[in-house]
Each structure stands twice: as structure tokens, then as C-alpha cells.
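Cont'd.
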Amino acid sequence: MTDFATYLKEERDQEWREELRKQIKNKERTSFERVKMPEQKPDIRNRNNLEVNQGLTEEQAVKEAQRCIDCPNPTCITGCPVNINIPKFVKKIEGGDFLGAAKVLKETNGLPAVCGRVCPQEVQCESQCFYTQKLKKPAVAIGNLERFAADYERNSGSISIPETDKPNGIKVAVIGSGPGGLAAAGDLAKYGYDVTVFEALHEIGGVLKYGIPEFRLPNEIVDVEIEILRKMGVKFIKNFVVGKTASLEDLKDEGFQAFFVASGAGLPRFMNIPGENYVGIFSSNEYLTRMNLMGAAKEEYDTPVLKGRNVAVIGGGNTAMDSVRTAKRLGADRAMIIYRRSLQEMPARVEEIHHAQEEGIEFLNLTNPLEYFADNKGRVNRMRVQKMELGEPDSSGRRRPVPLEGSEYDIDVDLVVVSVGVSPNPLIPEAVKGLDVTKWGTINVDPESMMSNIPGLFAGGDIVRGGATVILAMGDGRKAAAGMHKYIKHSIQKN
Amino acid sequence: MTKIVGKEQFSELVTLLEIDAPRIARQRKPGHFVIVKIGREGERIPLTISMADPEKGTISLVIQKVGVTSHKVTALNPGDELTDVVGPLGHATHIEKLGTILCAGGGVGIAPMLPIVQAMKEAGNRVISVLAARTKDLIILEEQVRAHSDEVIIMTDDGSYGQKGLVTQGMEEVIKREPVNQAITIGPAIMMKYAAALTKKYNLPTVASLNTIMVDGTGMCGACRVSVGGKTKFVCVDGPEFDAHEVDFDELLMRLGAYQDEERADYERYLKTIQ
């Protein structure tokens, strides 16, 4: 049996777990309906920026936790990129030890309040749940429970600070303060390193701050998690672009022994169709950054943003949903998703699509933009689209959209947000001589240690994956921290 | 926080700030810019670096008062702090010995032109600088440019200083007179558009340093995109300098005007609040 399996079994065999299992029969547990997450009403929330999901109450959380039958072989964990001991934290909730549940989460996940909100649990832990796999019933709401435990702890005023090893005085650098960087920083601090996180922007948090809107992830929650890292000894330096403000060599000279690059997927992609540079056409990165990071919609903030009555958002991912729902909240009459495949192929989370539909977002699926038109000041006022149909599956396994000849028509728009993906940020690959990068500009790393071809330089998240999720970036960060730890121990032994 | 250590008022509208930024001062090269933000609620604006003193650890920025943010920045005094400064960003100017270089700077564009003039001179080029502005008061850093130029031509729209006329007249005078190997132009987009049109006529390779609307300045948002040779480029990570003959200046001008109405209204509101 592997170490991890042994650990899980030992934990499961503890008396308190056995007691809880005896209290309710499995037959009864599996008869409970999944507790519905309380939400703001669609016609109210689409006019404010407050969180859509309101969080479970204590009673609801316990009720939901009771559904978990504490399987001998908890398959849910295999679906979690950071290997959270899921049954243990769920059973802590069932037993009413909410702070204990939060502590379990933090053993492997530095940002549980974030993950409980933005992880695609339906394709991760919850997809591997006994309920989904065997009973064909809605999974235990692991994500909602994670959020509950993290929120409970935060609101309790007694947040636990993870224990750290004795400081070893070795300086390590994390480049980028998004989810990958924060996860790595937390683990490196636990190992006892002197960790400095370098951030290019004026706020810590990366995509969690500039990308994901308040109604899905309030900034305040991210700040609390960052504060915990500070208390663990992690230093944060803002307004610092590694490769520009200082070179990697400069930082080595200043004593940094290893580096983790988590600089994200910096470059927004456009479709390169006529008229795409007209005024009023944004990348989703720009639109969301103006709103989330720069506070453009708030009176007291200086950054402007254009408002639209007829807003088209191009794309079908989570970022597209965030953009279109933001536009609706800013008062758009029509807020439209324009997506070239069908609803079925949409990469966004089912929950986000569902929320968007409830809020009155129009979905123009199987539709592709061809060209934009503008008024005499250059402001976009119309777009030409074409209908599509689905053909044979392409390399992604999804059916390829094929244009329907003669199906072109025009739509009035005064704001367009292009959300068709991102390319890796070029700054680090440009700044590090000899770094092995792919033809797409992502950094090649060893999948186990996350080390690049440059000794001591590790990387993870979107700069390696080219555009993935918060939790995958965090998983990379944790792996890289372990890889860095091993690398440094090894190089100290050698000398 | 970044401290302001020196200030010079060139005219009512134009101010030079010397700021304490040791890392940027060490790293910056001619052509680089920084992004500056003032106050928690401030916006991020790009400013091209004028000169730097690596030993003192300072850089200097020249700012023209045109809206809320530039007004706030120019109102600061030594001892005050800028909330955020990040850089140096963008690619540095390609400095090479080419022969004769014609440097055309307009208005506050003269400030970032100065380090290029200096570097081109140091690389062994003959450097002829044309400084242009609406009126005498707006001709800045003349003495410093002169110190590194073989010749300086001053042009003002109203004839209050130097010759009366546009920057292009000063440039054409040189091009007609002697062989020039490269032109570099920094200034208002409309000025660069005409400068580029002129040098194209003479097949004179020309570089333009573009200053667009930006948010992050590191390639993340695409606010600064501009068409160069029919392809979309990001000024922050692909530029800020491009082949002037390939830049779509009309598109650049259109995009620069994106927030014109909002900005004007905001500025008027702001001016009322500080009265």
C-alpha cells in the first residue's frame, strides 16, 4: 500500500470517524437530497456586484456532510489536484467541528475559500464521488462544503496559521502572485524558506484580483488568504517585473537560490478579423481588469471604462461568462454570448452558464463574428456574424464548427469583449537566455519536479499549461515547491 | 511608494519630476517607459523615462498636464510620493552607429528623445535634432539636447522661437541638405504621422516611439494594440518603438481618443473639486 493510502486508512480508522459512520445508516444518508446553495435572486443580483452564492448555513452544511458515506476507498480525492483529504474535512463538518474542517483543508490547500468558490468541482472531486460514479445521483457538494468551512473559519476570528518549519535562512523567489505563486509560497514557507513573491501589478493576487469578478470571488477573501501567508513569513514585493526591474542574475546575486515562475497567461488573443481594433472592442483581460482591479465602475476611481447598451462577448469560457455578466451588471440592455459551437461544447462551468442564463444573458450559439463596423469616431456600432453547424470532431475531440454559407447577418453592438483565450506572457521567456520554451511560448518543465532546463528555475500554472484553472495552477505550485525543496537540499549536500 | 526628490517646472503645463527608483535607474535604457499610479483610486498611465542617474538612484519623468491623473502627478512636490511606479518596461531603443541620425521630438516627446540623442551620439553618429512645439514655452530641455547634438533646429507653430513652422519643415530642410541614415520621432501621434509621411517620401528609415493608452503595461490587457504592417501589435511588449512607415497612425489616433469625452468631463469635475 502506498504511503498516502496508508495515511488515509489510518485517518479513517480513528474512533471519531467510526462513531460518526455508526450514527446514520448509509441507506438513510444516500436518501438525503443534495442541499441547494442559497443564491441571490437573478433579477436582483444582475444589478449588483455582490456574491451570487450566499454560502451554506451551519445546519445546511451538516446536513450535506451527512450525505457523505465516508467510503473506504475515497475516489473523490483522486479528482483533486492538491489531494485534499476530502472525507476527513467533510466528516469534521458533520461532527460540528468546523474549525477542525478548515484545518484539514489547509493541510494541503492554502486557499480553500478561493477554491471552494471557483474550482470546477463537477469535473474534479465531485465527478469522482461515489454518488456520481455508482449511485448516479448528485455528488456530495464538496465544493460548497469547502467554502463553508473556510468561510466559517474566516468569520470566527480565529484563523489558524499553518505551522512552519524552523527558518533555514535560504532565500527563494516566486514570480507572480496568482494562485500558482501563492500555493508555492505557502508550501515553501512551511518548509522554512525565506520566501519573496514578486508581483508586476500594484495588487497581490494575480488573476484572482484582476480577472475573477467580485460577484464570484470577493477581493476581500483573497486578501485574507494573502494575510495568512504574510503571517507565515512570506514577503510580497509589488510593482516588480522580474526580467525588467531586475534580471534573474541580479536576484541570484542578491542570494536567491531557486525561482518559481508563475507569471500566468499574459497575452490576450484576438481573432484578427476586420475592424477588431475599433474603439469599444476590448480583450476580456482588459475589460475585467478595468472593472475588478481598477474599479472603473466606481465613481471615486479614476480609471474609465466604456459602457454598452448592446454588449457582445465572444467566446464560451468562464472568462467570457464573467465578462458578459459584468456587462449586464453595468446596465446593458442586451448582454450576449457569441459562441461558435453549441451549448454542449462550451468550456465554461455548468454553474456559470446556468447563472448567466438566469440573469438574462442571451446565448447566440453556433455563431461566429466576421467583421466589425464603427461610427465616424471609430466606436464600434455593428458586427457581422455567420451561423455555424457542427461537423466532424477536431483535435480537441469537440465537433468542429463549420460555417453555413449565406447565413451572415448583422447585430447592433456598442461594446464587444473578445474572450477567445490567451497566450503565455512573453516577459520571462524573453528575459531568460537559453530557457526551453515550446512553439506556443509556454515553458517546458519536468512534470514531476516542475524544473525547467535551467537548474533552479521552476515554473507552473498558465505559463506552462497555456491557459487552465486556478486549482491546476495551485497544484503546480505545490509540486514545484516540493521540487525546489528537493533541489536545494541536494545542492547543499553536494557543496 | 516612490518618493519624489526633485521637481522642475518647465512651463505652466509641463513639469519634470525626479523620482527615487534605484532599480529602475540601474536597468533603464533609452526608449524604456514606466507605469505610474497615484492614489488607491488612481489609474495606471505610461510615461516614457527621460534621463536616469544610476548612482543617485533616480529617474526623471516629464509630464504635461492634460487630465485628472497628469494634473495630480504634476501637483506633487519633492517629499511627496507616487503610490506605484513599475518598470522599466518595453524594448529599449536600438542604438547603433549608422551615420547621420535625425531626431525629431515634439512637445513633451523631447524628454524621452533626450536619452536617445545622447546614446546615438555616444555610439559615434552625427546627430541632428529637430525640436518642435506649439510655442516657445513648450520647447523643453533644449540645452541638454544641444549638448549631445551636432546641430539643433527649433520649430514653433507660432514662430515665437526658432523658425516658424512644423516639425516636418525642419526635418525636410535637413533631408534635402545632406544624407541621413535614420530618423527617430517621438511626440504627439499626429506629429509622428506627418513626420512618417515625410520620411517615407524620401525612403528614409524611421522609428516612431508610440505612447498609447495602457493598463498593465506587461502585455496582459491589449489596450495598447496598434496595427503595424497590417498586424496587431502590443505597444507595451512589442514596442514602444516601431517602423514608423508601417504604423497605422489613423487607427492609433482613433484609439487614443477612446475615452476623450469621459476624460474631459472627469477633468472638468476634478478641477471644480480642487478649487
